[in-house]
Amino acid sequence: MLIVMRQDASPEQIEEVVRVVESKGCQARSIPGGDRVSIAVLYNKGALEEAWFMDLPGVKQAIAVTRPYKLVSRETKPEGTQIRVGNVTIGNGRLVIMAGPCAVESETQAMTIAENVKKSGGDMFRGGAFKPRTSPYSFQGLGEAGLKILAKVRESFDLPVVTEVMDLSCFDMVEAYADIIQIGTRNMQNFSLLRRAGEAKKPILLKRGMSATIDEWLMAAEYIMAGGNPEVILCERGVRTFVRHSRNTLDLSAVPVVQRESHLPIMVDPSHAAGFRDQVMPLARASAAANAHGIMIEVHNEPEKAQSDGAQSLYPNQFETLCRQIRAIEGILKEK
Ligand code: PEP
Ligand code: MN
Description:
The protein is α/β, with parallel strands linked by helices. The protein is about 35% helix and about 15% strand. The protein contains eleven helices and 14 strands. The strands form three sheets. It has an eight-stranded parallel β-barrel with strand order 7-8-9-10-11-12-13-14, surrounded by seven helices. A four-stranded antiparallel β-sheet has the order 2-3-1-4. Strands 5-6 form a two-stranded antiparallel ribbon. A hairpin with a 6-residue loop joins strand 2 (about 25-30) and strand 3. The longest helix has 19 residues, at about 315-335. The two termini are about 35 Å apart. Bound molecules: phosphoenolpyruvate and manganese (II) ion (MN).
């Protein structure tokens, strides 16, 4: 249930609505944005009756929310959410380009790539310090030393940094260094991690689970929002199918579907979807054409020596070309 207050509703009238919601054993959550206050009713056990709220002073409308996700739903908040990080805004109509290596490997590596990302017109730097690797024998990331390198990248190039949190034990540390905290595909339904993300003071980039439906993904985002963090960015990164020619199958239809269902911004990561460099540029261009709010691209100065995901990492000159192409596609979409 969403209770929409009249524009001239007084704080006392809003408080009274909250009190009635709580008296029904539910929680009330005000929804930011717009020119009036709306109150979402959460944790109801059964159906709620509109009449309980419609007669209260200051109430304009009580609307049943038909989807299982409430705070994430466009029914609850019709206008798109914009998330500001440093000088960059995600969801304001300009496509945001996040780029960098799969993993931070050394200061020289990160700084070299960041210089290229900045020069090419990238908006944010990505790089893992804690890496979720299939094999325990593979490079696991530099940990806090990697986060310190990311902080240096931010300072040197004025690029906000995005990095993955893998578990609860490193959450506080990642939160202290990151501008955006990434939750990876393997953790999309790690509910204790999602609850902690709900308490975080930084935006969360929530990747789609590799076998998750859109409903499951939006419910995972609901955990974060229900926990109190309204800043969630969704990221489609390909789902597992029967094909062998690519690592995953990029589900670009997720972009319009998520934009219809949710007010949260949605990005696309064609690098992890493709797994192979030659597919990344076409898929990235298609993501821009699909009107994604942003893209995330893996770039490496020496992909053949990369400690992880070298095969899907673009060369710096390819990334530069891609940025130009993306901005051109964006221009076409803005034409009326
Ligand atoms: C990553 O972005 O580095 C990553 C591991 O992505 P995903 O969780 O989508 O595999
Ligand atoms: Mn990677």
